[in-house]
Amino acid sequence: MSRAEPSDDFSAVYARYQALGEGVRAEIVAGEIRTVPAPRPRHVRTASALNVRLGSTFGWDSDGPGGWVILVEPELRFGDDVRIPDLAGWRVERYREPEDNPIELVPDWVCEILSPSTARSDRKEKMPLYAAHGIGHLWIIDPALHTLEVYRREGELWVVAGNYEGDDQVAAEPFVEAPLDLGALWRVPAPKP
Q1: 111 and which of 19, 27, 87, 129 could share a cystine (Cβ 3.0–4.6 Å)?
Q2: Domain, as residue range, for 165
């Protein structure tokens, strides 16, 4: 069976997954439930900063170029897998809001923010899964190294579309209409005197 075809056992596994209850962080990997640790503060701060910046510029109701629905930690189904990327985006003309989880509509873009506990899975498991299921663009952000890797899918392979670091101003695929202040993702708030 290919990864794109769900097995007959998915419903039973998903019922057990849902029974874990809200607040338990888990994914379904190859038909097995895998708990995942909560992200560290730096990870959460980076994801929040990216969401605010992309949403205010590219969100469907933004004052910028718009055209996107961007969700934080959506529960996405890929065959027998249920994965939760840090952020995912759909072009507004493709997006159809489901009544419940998991979302089966493949996003146009996903972003994974690396943590020591997730970096291996993000690269070794999720990258090929996302390519095989037709996601067009993938961002890998490393908040410790202050880097952004941008990938474009060609066939079932990822092609590097850009590498950025530090305080670069980037117009990265698929959000090329307006630059992103990369340095804003790394800045730590300073207390006011």
Answers
A1: 87
A2: 38-185
